TrEMBL record:
Catalytic activity: (S)-dihydroorotate + A = orotate + AH2
Cofactor: how bound: Binds 1 FMN per subunit.
Short name of one Pfam family: DHO_dh
Descriptive protein name: Dihydroorotate dehydrogenase
Cellular component GO terms held in the UniProt record: cytoplasm
Active site, per annotation: C127
Gene name, Swiss-Prot/TrEMBL: pyrD
Length: 302
């Protein structure tokens, strides 16, 4: 019998341990359907705000030797638009990513999805390049506490917090999230970075500073998952630089129960999820693991 690659992130059950990370392929239900068929256990939407946001002017994304540098500016059509779209056609496991500045932004958005079937919410407390949201919220413990408390009170589905590396200790954000009743942590978002055109001397991104993603950030993300899992009793989803089954296994051993894949989906497009799921399954067979949970956090024993 082949190993069971289904997994749980706290109250969230997934048929497969690989998910699409937020922001990589927007909110197209056609694309989500295709990736689900290809093996994604869940699809995380682009972060949605209370109202539509335009984002920044181009250039907003640069391909690096490995991975990307982006400051898209969270352009999205708004939570009410997506909730309506989903209410008309919902067939795949979707986690809705939400972004806002104050608790009322988040509770307004949660109300929009009241009668729509979704797996859960992921609160974006970590976008590194938009003012008054993302990391600026994640860096403010009082705000993190009131946002999570308000969303938990309003939501009928599990709520995850996505953390990143800002100007305060991210482990304090995790601590506050845990104390406020969060169901799980996604770690990590992109890392603040920039690139300059040496001919003109201009920063390349219109926003100048953006977030770096892809394989170069993997060791940082693995370290964060390991630290969170060592210090807190909270389900974790690892994210950052996963592009092979070996990367995914590393995150599971560090302590996450599932992984999200972003840049590698942009780079390879097809086949990433099935390839990684197959690799995890073969690895489990070889190591005699029957269930994903048997390998989660093994690295902490050493
Ligand atoms: C173009 C682009 C847009 C992104 N948009 C979002 C977003 O809207 N919300 C969010 O939480 N993360 C966003 N991210 C971050 C990813 O979800 C992920 O955390 C990060 O890219 C690290 O994973 P990766 O190395 O597999 O890409 C974005 C990343 C990229 C490259």
């Amino acid at each position: 019998m082949s190993p069971d690659i289904s997994t749980h992130v706290g109250p969230i059950s997934l048929e497969r341990p690989t998910m699409l990370a937020s922001g990589i392929l927007g909110i197209s239900l056609d694309v989500f359907g295709r990736l689900y068929k290809e093996g994604a256990g869940a699809l995380v939407t682009k972060s949605l705000s209370k109202e539509p946001w335009d984002g920044y002017p181009n250039p907003t994304i640069i391909g690096l030797k490995h991975g990307y540098l982006n400051a898209v500016g969270l352009s999205n059509p708004g939570a009410p638009y997506f909730a309506k779209m989903l209410s008309q056609n919902q067939t795949v496991p979707i986690i809705v990513s939400l972004v806002g500045s104050v608790p009322e932004d988040f509770t307004f958005m949660v109300k929009q999805f009241e009668n729509v079937k979704i797996l859960g919410y992921e609160l974006n407390l970590s976008c590194p390049h938009v003012e008054k949201v993302g990391l600026e919220v994640g860096d403010d413990p009082e705000l993190v506490h009131t946002i999570i408390k308000s969303v938990k009170k309003e939501s009928k589905v599990p709520v995850l917090a996505k953390v990143g590396l800002g100007s305060s200790d991210y482990l304090e954000t995790v601590r506050t999230a845990c104390d406020s009743g969060i169901d799980g942590i996604t770690a990590i978002n992109t890392l603040r970075a920039m690139a300059i055109d040496i001919q003109t001397g201009r920063p390349i991104l219109s926003h100048k500073i953006g977030g770096m993603s892809g394989s170069p950030i993997k060791p940082v993300a693995v370290r964060c998952v390991y630290e969170i899992s060592s210090k807190f009793d909270i389900p974790i989803i690892g994210c950052g630089g996963v592009s092979s089954w070996e990367d995914a296994v590393e995150f599971l051993l560090a302590g996450s129960s599932a992984v999200q894949i972003g840049s590698a989906v942009g780079e390879k497009w097809t086949g990433v999820f099935s390839e990684i799921n197959d690799g995890i399954s073969k690895y489990m067979e070889k190591k005699n693991y029957k269930k994903i949970s048997e390998m989660v956090g093994i690295a902490k024993k050493f």
